[in-house]
Structure formats: structure tokens, C-alpha cells
Amino acid sequence: MKKPLLQFTDRGIYCGQADVFLDPWKPVNKAIISHGHADHSRWGHKKYISQNSNIPIVKHRLGDISISGKEWGETFSINGVKFSLHPAGHIIGSSQIRVEYKGEVWVFSGDYKIENDGFTTAFEPVQCNTFITECTFGLPAFKWRPQEEVFQGINSWWAQNRAEGLTSVLFGYSLGKAQRLLKFLDPGIGPIYTHAAVENMTEVLRQQVDFPETNLITRDTKTQEIKGSLVLAPPSAHGSTWLKRMVPYVTATASGWMAFRGARRRRAIDKGFVLSDHCDWDGLLQAIDATGANQIICTHGYTDIFSRFLREKGFDARTEATLYEGESGEVNSSAEQQQDKLENAE
């Protein structure tokens, strides 16, 4: 029986013909990395390949590694297998990985969103036979509003809090969400302060993006100077003693999970903004249709529900287990939150 071009193994997604792994979760000799989040970009591989924009991120997080970069759409061959990286629209430098061998084409999407957020390279549909898709928000209940509306709400919330003499603490994971929030905050309202984990990653990305000015919160930062400002912090800071210097403050989280009724209350957050770096239900379906693929492999998220729906629509769809976490890292004890804690110098 012919082996599939890509196989799901205990180390990660493996291309046997090229002897290379895609986003492996255990150490391997050669890894192609879709993006810099900790569940997809792990330490310990001998050689890394990624999109050029992702290299500063991966080096910042993983240290001195052997990594080579590729441009969008640049084809490179490994033992006769053609690979190329295409924009996923998830965060800066996030890629879909196209794999072609003897006319058969697979695309591993990594994490992705189809809404153009205005600073991440926009998602590019890639024609293929087999599409490996995430299902983080693979339920019909998830339907995102345009981000312009969401940011109007965030800036209005901050302005109202400032008028009442309150500091606004806004939680979003340190790589991706925090920078998306920062890019579209209105600095005309007041100063923007950052937790060390957010500031460190933002400084890395300032090489590629023009962000508003930020002020790092240190041990010497006084409560009075922060008052009325907006503070960007990772979810791991919620409930910590670090927040004491913000008093009086109100909190908010920007996450796709805020679409769930009761999510804000369960997490003891004052305000929830529905903003995700992943596709909603309709976005997932649009992306799949755009690939032209008939075989769909569903990973991390609502895989059973989503794959069953696809089969009812006539697709050859199945699920595969991975160690990817999607946006759950915003609210769970995950690799992404552990990374935030490691980067928290204050």
C-alpha cells in the first residue's frame, strides 16, 4: 500500500520521502516551522527552515539555533520533494507549508485566519489535493465581527475608563495578539504600557512593523504614572501580584473564546472582546473551498464535529491527533503561557 505523502507520527507530521518534519513536537533532525508560537516552534531540532519574517521570532524564543529562511512562494527541494511557504495570516511570519511530490500536493495550514488584519501578510489560498486544517473554532456558533468594529469598542472602553480615572489592563498572548492590539490602539487616548513579555516580543517585531510607542513597566514604575493608561499584558499576568501597581484598574481579554456566554465571568474578567487570530466557522469553510482539496485532515480543536460536517458536504474528511493547542493557550496552562512566564523579567 502506498504511504501518504505526509504521515502523522509520535514526533510530528512527517514527510518520509524528504525525511523532514512539519512543526514537530519532539526533537528531529530537520524541521520546517510554520510560525513562532510555542506549540508549533519547539526547541531541540538540529536544523530549522522557516519564512524569513519568522526567523527573528524563533531566534528570540529558542536562542542559538541553525535556521535558514525562505521567501513567500520560494520553491525549495529536498530529495525530490518540492516545498514552499505561503502566508497563513495568523501572526507575523506565519506560513502554510505546501508539499508536492510526483504531482500530488498537500498543504499544511498550521494556524490561520482569512481576515486581513492590516499588518500580518494576508492569507493566501493554495490549491492542493489534501489540506490539513486546524479546527480551533470549528463550531457554527463562532462568527467574528469585522476587526474595525472590535477596535472601536476597545478604544471606546479605554477612553471611558480613563475618564473615570481607571487603568485599563488588556490581556492578549505575547506573540501575535498583543501586537495586533497595539497596532490598532489609539495612542491619542493616552500612554500605552506593557508587561515585559509583551514588550520583549514587540521590540523584536518593531523591525518589521511600525507600532505606537510603548512604555515598559518595571519595578520602578509608579502607580500614579500608569493611572488612566492602557496596559498590555499576557494572560499569565491575570491574578498575579504584578497587577497590584495598576490599582484602580479594570480588565479585559481579547480572545475568540469571549464569544462563549459566561466565558468572561468564569475567568474573572471585567470585559471581553471577541478577537481571534484564527478562523471562525465560515472562515474555515471558505478557506477549504478555496484550496479545491477533496481530502481534508482536521487537527486541534472541534475536529470531530467539523470533520463530520465536511463529510456530510461530500469531502473525504478525517481527524488526526497533534500536540497543537490553537488559541487555547490564551486561557489554559499551555506552552504559550509558559513562554510568557519565561519572558517576564519583572
From TrEMBL:
Membrane spanning stretches: none
Signal sequence region: none
GO MF term (any one): exonuclease activity
Keywords, alphabetical: Exonuclease, Hydrolase, Ligase, Nuclease
SUPFAM superfamilies: Metallo-hydrolase/oxidoreductase
EC numbers, comma separated: 3.1.-.-
Region (Disordered) location: 325-346
Protein's UniProt name: Ligase-associated DNA damage response exonuclease
The organism of origin for this protein: Lentiprolixibacter aurantiacus
Lineage of origin: Bacteria, Pseudomonadati, Bacteroidota, Flavobacteriia, Flavobacteriales
